[in-house]
User: What shape does this take?
Amino acid sequence: MLMTLLKKHRLLLLALILGLSAFLLSYNAFRVCIKTEKVVVPARNLEPYHNISRSDVRIIEIPAGAVHERCLHTVEDAVGKYTVSRVFQGEMLLDAHLISGERRPGISMEIGSEERCIFVPAEYQRAVGGNINPGDLVDLVWVRKSAAHSEDYGSIHALTVLSNARVIETVTDESSGEFRGVVIACLPITCEKLAQCIESGSIYLCLVPWSTDGDGLPTDAEVWPNR
Assistant: This one.
């Protein structure tokens, strides 16, 4: 009778055996994902050079298979350190996002070894109404101080002294919020010539279209001598 039942339900038994085998194989393949690990994530968006406090980060659990090899696992690994780039809320916090709290980072991390930063004062009237952001490229137009009050338009001395300058940071007045100028990256020799231009006249900032930034690196910028 047993043999009769086996023959009668052999397809059902075969299906059960195959199903059990598939389950065992898939379990071995997915057990890493089923396991979870604790990781550190920002509790809010963090800007570059931000000193991390305990309220800035939290712990969550995610599947072990999704954990980045360089992520942090305890809050203590992050607190007191500085971010070196923007990190978004809920993103896994990696050691590459941080720098030791012993030395506060700054915009010097964003320039090359052959570059220098210089502040170019330009209020919003001379800076596209203040509509300039870090990462933009700008041309710098110099106007001689003595020419600003000239009655004769033809005698105004204005020329482009720097092209395709990369804006590292914009500067606003801490109390009023008014636009005060930009910090740009350029070569040391360019900084010297710009300092002379700033002391002898006014600088106007002109936005460069994004489509022309292919060769717009600071080292390719040209500075024309004062005429």
User: Anything to note?
Assistant: The radius of gyration is 30 Å. The chain has two domains: 36-99, 108-220.
